[in-house]
């Protein structure tokens, strides 16, 4: 499943000798840790529910396994060049400068990975002898993290050394010159030097525009502050990265991503899409209606939007080509449908926002349903109004047994959605526990009912899920390190005072519009999780002070972030959709702007009619 943007820092993994040996190891370790985590969570829930015997160590073990799996998975993602980064600005440079930016970026990736590895292992040494609340050794969290980061360092080193020595020396010389200028300024004209915060911001903007992968750009920004400020030990950085993902709630991310891969491997996704095509695919704009509806259903199962885009696009984009539709417009609708689906549970970004802003995840899930329904209805209406009937020959009729199997497959998929919602409503389990049982459900159904999920296919699903979730969680960890630095600089307090003062003068409507604008812009230049981690804790408390319902405001933030994530020319999600659809970004810009205009209008309605977001949470007791 092509669900990420291939960057310039890890292409041709098979041609690197050390990587070809080490990559299967990091894949196996990350997937094995994820499988062990799944077993621990399921065992804990069953022991508590069936035998009234809570497992005290389960939470600590599960969190430790997740941290380790995340860093080994992130290492695998780096080796394959799957780290997303902003390529638009770099593409404007002459080719020679693009190569130079790639060389400098590869060097910085190595520096950051090595720094994380060294201080994570150092943190393990420092915490030796300390224990968690359940009595488990604390260093068991940090040593595996350090080993995963060490593997990342090896991959980064081989990526860098695969370039010419001249390129490597030029990159090192450029970084040495920048460092030398800073040191000279600090020694001879310290009063004229910018503050640590200013240098951190400048470094972040320059490296992000240069195409450095987002997770590494975030981590480097925090490191610049630590290096310039000079009073913070390096272990603080590693500690904050671990703290950013060392939470039981975030385990829902890898488990829901796993569900998406298992659905694809066991044939559930293909059955569901084929049934939708047979039901409404021949009507006016039918394929587009199928695409929007499929995104609604898939987003109710898998929390990863790019996984949903890949699953739906892999089937429907070739079908749209056969029917004579414009591929650019089809990919644009696919991307717009992903924006629409940002608030359909169990969306990863809702989970992250609930975690960082201390909001009820179940409440956010309920609050996102009607806004998503409004946007889906708008996209379907436009698809029918401006669509054409399919010119492709109708699919051949199926035998009764085959049709029955198709309906059964669709029913099983919908049963998974029902299980997720019933789990949240009943309070039987947390988001993480529900995601674990959703994964178990997909494994059992695929292997026993459909008989399509072989052990090898299941293992590949675990590998892909571990790498993808490692990629996401590494960005979450890096964003947490930057959020920690921003807190030290009292940025949240300053932002809160400014926004509250502005809103008292002009009303809450201006605060909401500013919030929408900030998240659209930040969603364009940052991966969605990073934007929410940095700005969610800043803005949600301010919204509460102004009397805006937190669940309603959280949904507005996530939708705005989604619009930015898929907005041309910077949106990383749009580049991912174009890669999946094998369409140049330029072919999607015009139709995408039309869809985004429609979704922005829906967002403004949602923002200024709070009942759309708050009705269901109130009805469900949140």
What is the arithmetic mean of pLDDT? Answer: 84
Uncertain stretches: 1-7
Distance between the termini: 36 Å
Radius of gyration: 24 Å
Strand content: under 5%
- What is the H/E order? HHHHHHHHHHHHHHHHHHHHHHHHHHH
SS elements, strand count: 0
By DSSP (H or I, 4+ residues per run), the number of helices equals 27
User: How would a textbook summarize the main sheet?
Assistant: none
How many structural units, i.e. domains? Answer: 2
Structural class: mainly alpha
Q: How much helix, percentage-wise, in residues?
A: over 70%
Backbone shape: globular
Tell me about this structure.
The protein has 622 residues and is an all-alpha fold. It has two domains: 13-246, no CATH class; 247-622, no CATH class. The chain has 27 helices and no strands. Helix 4 (95-126) packs across helix 6, helix 10 (252-265) runs antiparallel to helix 20 and helix 12 (286-299) runs antiparallel to helix 13 (305-322). The radius of gyration is 24 Å and the shape is globular. The relative contact order is 0.12.
